[in-house]
Amino acid sequence: MSNVADAAIAVPESRSVTVKSSPRPATGAWWRHLLGLLALIWALFPIVFLVSAAINPAGSLETSSLIPKHMSLANFHTLFADTSRPYTSWYKNSMIIALSGALGSVFIGACAAYAFSRMRFQGRRPGLLALLLLQMFPAMLTFPALYLTFANLGDVIPALGLNSIWALILCYLGGAMGANVWLLKGYFDTIPKELDEAAKVDGASHARIFFTMTLRLVMPILVTVFMLSFVGLFSEFLLASIFLRNVDSQTLGVGLYTMTIGNEKNRLFGQFASGALLASLPVVLLYLGFQKYLVGGMTQGSVK
Amino acid sequence: MAAVPASPKDPLQPLRLGTDNTPWWAHAIKWGLLGLILLAGAYVIQRVISNGSWLGVVITAFIVMCVLAVYSTRRAVPMKYLLPGLILLVTLQIWPIVYTVSTAFTNYGQGHTLSKEDATARTIADSVQEIPGSERYKMSVAVKEGGDPTTAELFMLLVKPDGTLHVGSKDGLTDLAKDGVEVGGTGKITKAPGYTVLNAKQGNARSKDLDALTVPVGKQGGLKAVGLSQAFEGAPTITYDAKADTLTQVKDGKTTVYVPKNAYWSPKDGGQALPTGWKENVGFKNFSNLLTNETIRAGFLKIFLWNVAFAAISVLSTFFLGMLLALLFNDDKLKGKGIYRSILILPYAIPGFVTALVWASMFNQDFGLVNSLTHLHIDWLGNAWAAKAAILITNLWLGFPYMFLVCTGALQSIPSDVKEAAKIDGANAFRTLRSIIMPLLLVAVGPLLIASFAFNFNNFSLIYLLTQGGPFNASDTSIGSTDLLITYAFRLAFSGASPNIGLASAVCIFIFMIVAAMSYSGFRRTASLEEIN
Fold this sequence. Notes:
The structure holds two protein chains of two kinds.
Chain A: H1 4-9, H2 14-18, H3 30-54, H4 74-81, H5 87-118, H6 124-134, H7 143-156, H8 165-173, H9 176-189, H10 193-201, H11 206-217, H12 219-235, H13 238-243, H14 252-260, H15 269-289, H16 291-298
Helix pairs in contact in A: 3-15, 4-15, 5-8, 5-9, 5-12, 6-9, 12-16, 14-15
Chain B: H1 24-51, H2 54-71, H3 77-103, H4 116-126, E1 128-130, E2 137-144, E3 155-159, E4 165-169, E5 172-175, E6 182-183, E7 189-191, E8 195-197, H5 200-205, H6 207-212, E9 215-217, E10 221-226, E11 230-236, E12 238-241, E13 246-251, E14 254-261, E15 264-267, H7 285-292, H8 294-329, H9 337-344, H10 346-349, H11 352-362, H12 369-374, H13 384-412, H14 416-424, H15 429-457, H16 460-466, H17 485-495, H18 501-525
Antiparallel strand pairs in B: 1-11, 2-3, 2-8, 2-11, 3-4, 4-5, 6-7, 9-10, 10-11, 12-13, 13-14, 14-15
């Protein structure tokens, strides 16, 4: 299939230039699929192992295998029936922490970003720079101080002591403003200021503009920040393990960890696997459903 | 001309055509919330006062006043949006940093949690011994009426040998009015107005609290419970000499003088120190221990080197695999890219704790999947080098999807004309990759690689959930072969035989400095900082 135009230009390697436009079927792609298949096996085998351990009726580590021989939901029944390991409480705690922590982070971050993006006030630039500097000190590194502070606070206000998920949420919110304000402010800056001014002329107060107009316009970035916070809080382990010592107030991470240590870990493996599988569901579904939002946020500097 | 409306006084102020039509419920919510905050503040202050912490009162009052000042007036509009985040930032991020720094210069830890005064008072109270020949009180244990028998403060209801009635608490001994008090057959008080007497079972459950209760009597004496129905009045065997700053113990006819040494009361002539120590400033001792103490330094250096190696190898391995996959799938004609991408994202989507715990099971020596598939019998988590390999393999699995996604994005943003230009110039595929694609890719993902390094440098949950920092050397159980600095600090603070929060804080500050140095190098390169608008 010769091309008159190509021949006329007489480029030495005309084939390579026209390769894009030619409707040649991707016959050379089989090796890509072969390597892709290898990558899929590497990515999937631990997950397949987890699933088959969860549905393995014998329910111990010795009898687990990559491909399940029998199937049953026995492990799930034991998981929910085990009163000394209250899985449903753990699930509830994790969801409360991740949901309210993420909502709080988004709200605090959005408020701060609105002020930094829309208003001019003294200390604005130093404030922004200070927030950037503070980000260099990860909050989890202050765990000795947080532990001591909340152990003492618990003597005064029992609802905010150790073993309280609300104290833990408060701890997570401490870094909320610094963590997200730059990402949010960048997006707020792309919304034309003329819209605010038009609303102001119509007599809307700053609060009305913020709650009824700006928040709607920046919804995509709010969704991104919400999900990144949710995923991060759902998986957080260090502070949760220091704060939550009571078996009833633990999160999924801390609770599942206690199932894998000690003498009973081999016997409990099936129960653990079914619990771990269910624990993975919220985050995995979020990732698959909202890939675009999360990937967009990840490339802007957030690392799990 | 006369029809032109009068111009506004201030031409810079926009014309306000409408009126402020904020709905009534918005005002209601605002004032309702402010009222709630005021109530909460009052509750906290009342609790703090009963606890005797004046600093707490000042802090709470200050926060509540800030909230009122900012939200009840029309001024300080930017502050209305910044205050919630600011309060949380100061109390829960800046304060812990300051507190960590100050703790790093103390010996805070097991046996060193009290101030010197409190520790001395505790030592003296603990030394109370029954005066031989004195008569015992009849005692019942009670809580204030309406208090929870399992947690409320304990009181001793006492009948003195001479028949008078008293109430003892940690604050002292007071008389009990006779009206309404019932005394049972054993001579114990069974009922008293304002108090709930605990039964034997409830009392037993509180025996630990009861043992800790000493009712101060006179200057240095005290009442202590014996079992659940008697109490004795005793005198301390230890006295404090404030002038010489010594404790003197007279016991069994022997006199021992204790002097402060290493934050403990130690006998002047050497020997066993008294158990209650106190918190004191130790200056740079924690830091100098990390750098000069032979045993601590060797372990600390080992952990530091592995920490850097772990973070570097993790970033490089995940980046390499992720980039290869991104290049593999970066072909417009390839079918099913969406499916590949959705499946390859799964390892990253699964919560980190699940990944670490599942891989820990797969690395089990006897029943684990890894050994059974490869027909090896490696003690993955028991051998120092195998454990390191296990951690790196797990982190490769966990982290490559992130690099894959990031590289895919970066590759797609490379303009196709530079690639075509390379082809026209006669570059082959490898040359294009090396000289065109790689440099552009690295510029795009470079900052993310640094961020990933900083994250892995403190990847606590992976290490802790996979190996707990182990395997541990039999000769020195404080240093694990796969410990990161942060897992080391965590164990120092919480799970060792004698927790040492002071030293743990010093390690945290060391990590701070490393992370700050890394971030600073990235910080300087961010040219956009110059143009904040």
